[in-house]
Amino acid sequence: xxxxxxxxxxxxxxxxxxxxxxxxxxxxxxxxxxxxxxxxxxxxxxxxxxxxxxxxxxxxxxxxxxxxxxxxxxxxxxxxxxxxxxxxxxxxxxxxxxxxxxxxxxxxxxxxxxxxxxxxxxxxxxxxxxxxxxxxxxxxxxxxxxxxxxxxxxxxxxxxxxxxxxxxxxxxxxxxxxxxxxxxxxxxxxxxxxxxxxxxxxxxxxxxxxx
Amino acid sequence: xxxxxxxxxxxxxxxxxxxxxxxxxxxxxxxxxxxxxxxxxxxxxxxxxxxxxxxxxxxxxxxxxxxxxxxxxxxxxxxxxxxxxxxxxxxxxxxxxxxxxxxxxxxxxxxxxxxxxxxxxxxxxxxxxxxxxxxxxxxxxxxxxxxxxxxxxxxxxxxxxxxxxxxxxxxxxxxxxxxxxxxxxxxxxxxxxxxxxxxxxxxxxxxxxxx
Lengths: 211, 211
Hints:
The structure is a homodimer of 211-residue chains. With 211 residues, the first copy, chain A, is an alpha+beta fold. The first copy, chain A, is 55% helix and 8% strand. The first copy, chain A, contains 10 helices and 4 strands, in the order βαβαββαααααααα. Chain A has helices at 10-21, 41-46, 66-76, 87-101, 105-108, 110-120, 124-149, 161-175, 184-193, 197-202, and strands spanning 2-5, 27-30, 54-58, 61-64. Chain A has a 4-stranded mixed beta sheet, covered by helices on one side. In chain A, helix 1 (10-21) packs parallel to helix 3 (66-76).
């Protein structure tokens, strides 16, 4: 498989963790979002969604959207599982996945903050404030769900799909110096994840395109 | 089942279509987002995510996040299917689902536009421009995928999960008078969906809390 990724893209980071947890090998192709490489015709012809990550799963078959890719990985490479087998629990895991993938990340990503800065002349501190507040609102929704379970990881004693989403989002929050003291359960889970080899191998600091 | 919904919430609308397509009965409980009813302690104690839709699937078991709920419905009530059986096709459907659920809707919703207006003093026309441009960018990613298939619905001759996401998003775009002439495939699919009884029954104009 070939992974199109940017070292600091949180959506790429999710997928890298999943590939590592499932023990799958892949070739890494860096796509520099700062230089808008994802918008170039060459990349767009591969992935019309013009985003990272994308995964070439077989010759010429390229799939996009990180959450769709996590579900594809789970269906085609079921071990170790990233979702529980019980349907109610699966729904609870996916609710946390979507709370991060829909209600936090899209509001904080580079194309949005660039647009706020360039089109609406928001100052850098206002853009940071914008990102922080969507992260905090989102974490306020997720923290009680994780606290209610109070397990090693979000939903049990092995890492799963919710953890894959949470770790990159908290990485971003820490990079932006968001105060995470109100979220001890969520940060506890992240700290335990970050001690695992799969999470270390997937971390932004350890990628081929890390500067 | 009890559905917590707001007639004009596009995330609620997705779930209503799915419930209708699968022929499932439910009690409708209106949650008025304009009055911030979703933030009231009574609702928050039911659904800590403080969003609509939520679905009480059995006594006291309340699930949130529309895409997680669509997956739960598909797993627990598989007929008629909303996803194809082939794993590659499932990934392509879910990529469109996430292109709308992550890259369009969250940027255009009420809490975001309110924040832009109240915190950053964006004028009404700038907020409309903000919403329009995220819809257009998102539709530009989705249109070639649908065009490539060129079928009755997004991915075949029966409506599926991608159609459930597309119809409410195009409803919003039309309400905001976004120019959709560059998207003939996407609007063609939506117009065909809107002729089906399940989509009509789920439409914002036909809900118990429609003013």
